[in-house]
Amino acid sequence: MPRTAAEYREQLKALLPPGIAFPREPGTRLEDLLDGMAQELARIDARGERLIIEANPLSTSELLADWERVAGLPDNCAGTLETTLQGRRNALLAKLTATGGQSPAYFIEVARALGYEVNISEFRPFRAGLSQAGDPLTSGDWVHTWRLNTHETTVIAFRAGLSVAGEPLRTWGNDPLECKIDQLKPAHTIVLYGYGAIEIQQAYLLSDRLWHYANFILPEDIG
To answer: I need a labelling partner for 172 at 20 to 30 A (CA). Which of 48, 61, 84, 125 fits?
Structure first.
């Protein structure tokens, strides 16, 4: 926590030589001089404290443009979400943390850094002894295909402390997600995007729980 001007003024008084030539009482010209020096020292101290915040890409605002210049942003994946402060920070975080990977967890984390909630479906080829009658025939190109499931619409809402005056109350768009994933995916793979798939999965899980409750738990309670 930075020191206040009053604290700096008292420190400066404590450094004065002893004697009547350096009065420490309030209202003197020396007091006014020390007060002016203390205010400047407190301002510099506060700016130094602010630098700690600006050194973090998640909280930077004044140095955001410099962070973006170093990271090579905005790039060709810039979209609607990056017109907001939150969106720009998310894009910066995604660029800095995208060190490379091929696992589902890696791409889920890349999407999360951009502000998207996703999960990934992989397609196993149909194989005798492992697959069953009725399973999809996911052979051929499907071996190298995976689907990224996300909400139908991802919305970034205006938030005090994270947004700035003049920004819209809500922004949405999926273009940055597709661009970034296509940019980072293994070159031999094909990515499909399932918008609204998470809502479908959640509805399926809810209906499954209701069915389980109606067929197993409720009869026991009645009995």
So the answer is: 61
pTM score of the predicted model: 0.64
Q: What distances in angstroms separate CA 142 from CA 8, 198, 217, one per listed residue?
A: 69, 21, 40
Strand pairing class (118-122; 145-150): antiparallel
C-alpha dist (Å) from residue 213 to 203, 206, 216, 220, 221: 15, 11, 6, 10, 10
Q: Which two tokens stand for residue 19?
A: 């004697």
**Type of residue at 81:** L
CA 182, CA 79: separation in Å to the nearest integer? 15
Tell me the pLDDT of the chain (223 aa) as tens digits.
888 999 999 999 999 998 888 888 888 899 899 999 999 999 999 999 999 999 998 889 999 999 999 999 988 887 776 778 888 888 898 889 888 888 999 999 999 988 889 999 988 777 776 667 766 666 667 888 999 999 887 777 777 777 777 777 777 678 888 999 999 999 999 999 998 877 777 776 777 677 656 665 656 665 5
Q: Is residue 75 within 8 Å of residue 114, measured between CB atoms?
A: no
